[in-house]
Amino acid sequence: MTNIPTPIETLLGALRAAGYEAYPVGGCVRDSLMGRVPADWDLCTSALPRETEAVFAGYRLIETGLRHGTVAVLTDMGPVEITTFRTDGTYADGRHPDAVTFVPDVREDLARRDFTVNAMALAPDGTVIDPFGGREDLANRVIRCVGEPDARFHEDGLRILRALRFASKLDFEIESATARSVLADRALLDGISRERVLSELRGLLMGPGAGRVLRDFAPVVFQVIPELAASAGFEQHNPYHIHDVWTHTTMAVDASPRDEVLRLTMLLHDVAKPEKFFTDEKGAGHFYGHAQAGAETADNILRRLKCDNDTRRTVVTLIDSHDIQPPQTPRAMRRLLAKVGEERVRQLLACWRADQSDRAADIMARNMPMIDGAEGLLEEVLSEKACLSVKSLAVNGRDILALGVEKGPEVGRILEALFALVLDGALPDRREELLAKAAELAAEGK
Ligand code: ATP
Ligand code: MG
């Protein structure tokens, strides 16, 4: 088991010295028992919030969670949350407890927690307080609700997605009664804030079990992103693709790097395939335009889920280009770089590779070297320090004016024309040649 870090020991010691009970609880206990280093350490205590604040009078405190009994204490490890033992009372709206009630017993606090593996506390003597069989479920790698699953999901529908997130993150199975309720109660997710839904969904996508969980619990995913439902079982009638669209999607998620933007991109990249499907006279399936239509649908989905703008715009750009041929000439690579920039091109390379994950072997054998080749071209073009925007041309607007061109749109038009020629490799990015060509263009324009 991982050792408790010193700043955490200090906080526990201070609370205990003041006569209160205090324990590490939840994710940190789970992760230490699994031999992982916890991302953060949450503590629970019998001290009431005001009492906790009094114990840590000499520290910087963050009081944003006070209403739920949480005081965050700033330590060398960053803020550590200390929450008073509590029950959550009733949940009239299926989202927020109507009132939290502070309770004297840690076991009552553990009983309000979502899953058995998240409902353990560490006692001072090193033993684990584990009233719901969390250690056994950890050993068997299962996610199981504390208490009756239907009741727990009706209290807080978000737990349905949290079950999927933990199953993916820990690569666990969901225990059968819990799994049945996850599926049966999925409509409860309609009442949950879109921000919280997206945050759990992003966590799910990042786990090692993402593809499997997406396949096993597809109806839950379709509950929050109905646009994906048509992909399930949608056969592609095309020798390039061996799986239905949804299965392919889940495999592409697994095949992409552990990066939230790329994984969201792969989740949504083929969302428009079913609507764009048609069969040619030979009976082969095609999906012309699915990338552009998919980019638009992804934009709507991510807006609805209140995704941050940066992520949304990047995902939309990547989906829009995911189906283009990877550039096979320096000229094509320069054009792509000029259009989307180096970071996007690198992300596109990852998307193209992930998209090959379940292709037929002969298609893979053809496509993968093409993608590798494009990556080589990227490095080559970058090392040339080629001019990739009008702004970085060796001449600027003043130079064009000096040739006698009148101030106005014509200046921009000439610069754009020069840039297009440089990008194509038809003209070197040198003042002399550029000015000569500009003079020619200016004369033509008159
Ligand atoms: P991670 O390392 O992924 O953050 P975690 O277990 O710390 O995992 P959090 O979402 O940070 O997960 O929640 C902390 C703890 O609070 C959980 O372990 C669980 O005991 C409890 N908890 C959080 N959200 C809920 C909820 N919606 N219902 C019941 N208990 C919850
Ligand atoms: Mg946590």
Task: Describe this entry's structure for a reader.
- By secondary structure, the chain is of the alpha+beta class.
- The protein has four domains: 1-137, Beta Polymerase, domain 2 (2-Layer Sandwich); 141-224, Hydrophobic Seed Protein, CATH 1.10.110; 243-386, Orthogonal Bundle (Hypothetical protein af1432); 390-445.
- The chain contains 22 helices and 13 strands.
- Strand 8 and strand 9 (128-129) form a beta hairpin.
- Helix 7 (158-170) runs parallel beside helix 9 (194-206).
- The mean pLDDT is 93.
- Magnesium ion (MG) binds next to loops.
Features:
446 residues; 4 domains; 22 helices; Hydrophobic Seed Protein; alpha+beta; two-stranded antiparallel sheet; Beta Polymerase, domain 2; binds magnesium ion; five-stranded mixed β-sheet; Hypothetical protein af1432
Per CATH, which architecture of the largest domain? Orthogonal Bundle
Net shape: globular
Profile the largest sheet: 5 strands, mixed
Associated small molecules: adenosine-5'-triphosphate, magnesium ion
Secondary-structure class: alpha+beta
Total of helices: 22
